[in-house]
Design goal:
The chain has 258 residues and is an alpha/beta fold. Helices cover 19% and strands 29% of the residues. The structure holds zinc ion (2 copies).
């Protein structure tokens, strides 16, 4: 079975369409212009590894019939990346064990504050809740074994939040990036498939815009770069036509071989 990556959500934090918006993209009705919050599913050697678990996770899991999840990989703890965490409960119940989770030490501490009940010992007779078994990354970069997969990580900051980029084999997932150490390019050297966030055409304080994302992608030199985390100013087909053929927009439901 080939290793694959499924885009579960390619939208920015508010999703597309934006609530109450009647801009051409939001009212286009086109499937490629409907973007749930950012998440993806890595299908590796028969395992399902979920990257981020945003507020649309339940809908994504139902849509793609995700019956099992072997581990959760978190980039960071902004709500658009973790707010669906309670819906992992059903997997813990069914799989009868805590959910393995890979996250930075900072993300772990933030999860403990905001989702304290995920870390409390379960009471006898109480309704089972999701429980996390967190592998904490305390270094800025390195590699770790998680769910029997070797995963390399590299950190950068989005404002005051630490974010992790991940590399598994020749596949890399780098989201919510704006400021980074230039050594990220040697870290990404040799990657064949890159998933990279790009918010919009206009520049942004927290994300790469398209122009910056294209420069970033060209520097990495992956065979294919898929952009994700787009907001409602981005029309799928119109934007794709302005991009080189090896750098294209992802869309919800797109599944690629990695
Ligand atoms: Zn709109
Ligand atoms: Zn985000």
């Amino acid at each position: 079975m080939s290793n694959r990556f499924l885009f579960l959500g390619t939208g920015a934090s508010a999703g597309v369409p934006l609530i109450g918006c009647d801009c051409p993209v939001c009212i286009s009705g086109l499937a490629v212009n409907q973007r749930l919050r950012p998440s993806g599913l890595l299908k590796l050697r028969g395992k399902n590894l979920l990257i981020d678990v945003g507020p649309d996770f339940r809908a994504q899991a139902l849509c793609h019939k995700i019956a099992s999840i072997d581990g959760l990989i978190l980039t960071h703890t902004h709500s658009d990346h973790i707010a669906g965490i309670d819906d992992l409960r059903i997997y813990c119940l069914r799989q009868k064990k805590p959910m393995p989770c890979l996250a930075s030490q900072e993300s772990f501490e933030d999860l403990q504050r905001r989702y304290y009940y995920l870390f409390e010992p379960s009471q006898p007779g109480a309704t089972a809740s999701v429980r996390l078994d967190v592998t904490r990354l305390s270094q800025e970069r390195g590699s770790v074994e998680f769910c029997k997969e070797s995963i390399a990580y590299f950190s950068y900051r989005q404002s005051n939040m630490k974010v992790m980029g991940y590399k598994i084999g020749l596949f890399a997932y780098v989201s919510d990036i704006r400021d980074y150490d230039p050594s990220i390019f040697s870290w990404l050297h040799g990657v064949k498939t890159l998933v990279l966030s790009a918010l919009q055409t206009a520049s942004s304080k927290l994300h790469l815009c398209f122009e910056e994302a294209v420069l970033f992608a060209e520097k990495v030199g992956a065979k294919t770069t898929w952009l994700t985390h787009m907001n409602h100013s981005v029309d799928h087909s119109a934007m794709n036509q302005t991009l080189p053929p090896h750098i294209q927009l992802g869309f919800d439901g797109l599944e690629i071989e990695i």
